[in-house]
Write a structure and sequence with these properties.
With 187 residues, the protein is mainly alpha-helical. It has a 3-stranded antiparallel β-sheet with strand order 1-2-3, with no helix packed on it. A hairpin with a 4-residue loop joins strand 1 and strand 2.
């Protein structure tokens, strides 16, 4: 079994999401390219620190990006290879931005949503009104919508958990119309 096959099998065995699997695999590939042609078993904490410092200092990655790469390395060594990674002394952490992220006001959101055409407007309004992530909104099925309780069920969201979300009153009629339209197509 190759390193990548073992990595994928371990990720699936411990039930990590497919998106996390792909992200971690990306960082393992980057790590291996950075230290070409050495196998991870021949390396340890100093090489991991060198790679993570490269991300922070040379590539100027965001702190969250460096942290994701670190998590991938810890997973690779701890879970896949079964080798303790040890202390990561001299790790230079990427700096978190000092600026506050920009958030759109209600008026700006209205303007943005008004410029979208169906079916994109319905999806965007559902994301905004229900507080869904993009992947969650795109995977909503009509049978997950409960018009009586004014909620929808988010299946396999973050952490592979199911959770209820509010169904915006402003979208109920449009979603019912969508449901009726799909029912006509099905029969």
């Amino acid at each position: 079994m190759t390193l990548f096959e073992a990595f994928r099998a371990t990720m699936r065995r411990v039930h990590y999401s497919p998106r996390t699997e792909e992200a971690y695999l990306h960082w393992v590939r980057q790590f291996l390219r950075f230290h070409r042609p050495r196998h991870p078993r021949e390396m340890g904490a100093p090489e991991v620190v060198a790679f993570l410092n490269h991300l922070a200092v040379e590539r100027h990655t965001a702190a969250s990006t460096q942290n994701q790469a670190l998590c991938a390395m810890v997973f690779l060594y701890g879970k896949v290879l079964g080798i303790p990674i040890g202390e990561l002394d001299s790790l230079q952490r990427a700096q978190r931005p000092k600026n506050v992220p920009m958030v759109l006001g209600r008026g700006e959101v209205r303007l943005l949503l008004a410029r979208l055409e169906p079916p994109f407007s319905l999806i965007a309004e559902l994301l905004y009104g229900s507080g869904l992530r993009l992947s969650e909104g795109l995977s909503v099925r009509l049978k997950d919508i409960d018009f009586e309780r004014h909620q929808l069920m988010v299946r396999r969201g973050k952490g592979d958990d199911d959770r209820p979300a509010l169904l915006p009153a402003s979208l109920r009629d449009r979603l019912r119309e969508q449901q009726r339209g799909l029912a006509r197509i099905a029969w």
